[in-house]
Amino acid sequence: MFQRLFGRQRRANRTITDALYGEIVAAARQPAFYSDWNVPDTPLGRFEMLSVHVFLFLHRMRNETGAAREVAQVLTDEFFADVELSLRELGIGDLGVPKRMKKLAKMFYGRTMAYAEALDRGDRPALAAALARNIRPDSGEWPEADALAGYVMEADRHLAGQGIEGILGGTIRYPQQTPEQEGGHPS
Predict the structure, then answer these.
(1) Which residues have C-beta within 8 Å of that of residue 176, sequence separation ≥ 6?
(2) pLDDT of residue 130
(3) How far apart are CA 149 and CA 122, in angstroms?
(4) Which family does it belong to (predicted)?
(5) pLDDT higher for 65 or 187?
(6) Which of 2, 30, 86, 170 would be 16's cystine partner, CB 3.0–4.6 Å?
């Protein structure tokens, strides 16, 4: 037990989750989301895109057991630690961080429920509505929400096709969105 907690296994798991989280962050930072699909390039907009990609990872891992479940939990913990660090970097003080973390966690889990329900039904319009409601709540009409919903559905299929062995080895690949793609369809 001590070997697992303090030894090589823990360092190996950390390396794997760091690699996975790096892929998630890279996917969430694809420039086309912000430049072509008008996701706000703000701390909250970046939180929303990171949340979408963490959700997609967790949705892929939802039926896995054993080590895969542990990796999913460690990655979730890493996500919230990263969010907390971002709050502190934005100048939120020690007294304000717990309150905001509670609010952001509630937001994240509410979104994951809405996204999962629409995704599991294959309901692109409901997914687009949920994305618009969460990512651009004050903008009224957001035509790019449908393209983002298409990306999320494609990313879900793409991740489902990746073997758990590769994921547990620290490799996960999201579809890349490039500016020249027509109609918002990911590669």
Answers:
(1) 30, 186, 187
(2) 96
(3) 10
(4) Belongs to the CBP3 family. Belongs to the UPF0174 family.
(5) 65
(6) 170
